[in-house]
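Why do we care about 3D structure at all? Because function follows from shape, and shape follows, mostly, from sequence. That is the central idea of this module. The next example makes it concrete: a single protein chain, its amino acid sequence, and then its structure expressed as tokens.
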Amino acid sequence: MTPPVETFSAPTMHEALARVRESLGPDAIILHTRQIKPKGLLSKKGPHVEVTASAGTSKQKELSVRTGTLSAQETERTRPAPSTSSLEDQVRRLQRLVDRMSGMPTTGLHAARPKSELEEYLRSIEFPENIVSELLEIATSASRPSPTVDDRELIDILVTHLASRIRTAEGIENRTIMNLALIGPTGVGKTTTVARLTAHALELGRPVHLVTIDEYRVGAADEIRRYAEIFGVGWSMAKTPAELRRLIERQPRGTLMLIDTPGRAALEKKEMADLARFLERGITKALVMSSNIRESSARASLDAFRDLDYQHLILTKLDETPGTGAVAGLAMISPVPITYLCLGQSVRGDLQPAEPLSLARWAMGQIARRPMEASESID
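And the structure:
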């Protein structure tokens, strides 16, 4: 008689395995596991681990030894210590997926290989194809010398490789940066990022003065004025390059000047040249780019603003990015280091200095919601 096959769902793998053992006994055979949590950074909590199992027979146990299928009891022993945090669930999924990569061929990035769950997972979080191939090669190479290598160690290898490909740098933590202009396309959140940097600078103990040179967008000056009032800092509007230079020359020693600029499109050559005249001397430039755009659009923006000689990249709207892997892809094609990551609607707290390892972990799904801790919003 064929043993019954049942499916169990639970918020964590630990709970799911407990239900398997309770229903089918400690020798139940785990046939399949999968993540059923919705995609995205802000997925709602709920049952998101699904385990398919059957009651164990002596024949099945023998088969499980040959195929690598584990009993519920063995699965629990091989897992890391359980955690109540849902952030661990995605780590465990990755651990199971990488384990199944053992024995796959490693004859080059474009070699034919069986479609794996790890490959599907990397594509589901929108890693670019070249990075998918790269990570699969690294996983199989790490597994080949020692098929029993610890799963968590393999995940760490993948994350460490991603981190090695991501360049970051200090932003206004570097006190030699005295005048910082945010440039970029329309709608990427430059003005909101100015406000977030103001909050961050004040936390660092740096006095701040806000400047806008945006005469084009309706309400731009009012928005800067409102943020200046909220934070208790000064603000100015510069209508010409000469006015901006005078503001820079007159700013008190040690004061950080944050400059908001009008949005520009890649094809606006004249407007781009006008902006370049404002930002000629003594101004550090950071390109602000939304993380929820296609790689082709990202490359266009990175190229379009190169004539302005920007030195840093700030990624915004991470909470609107359905695929975390895509963000790692943007980081890798950037010609300049990333300084900050932004997400959420809060002005305070939703900005974090970029750090390669935490960004790589988040991109791989080891941090399920965001690469920084949430803070309270401004009322």
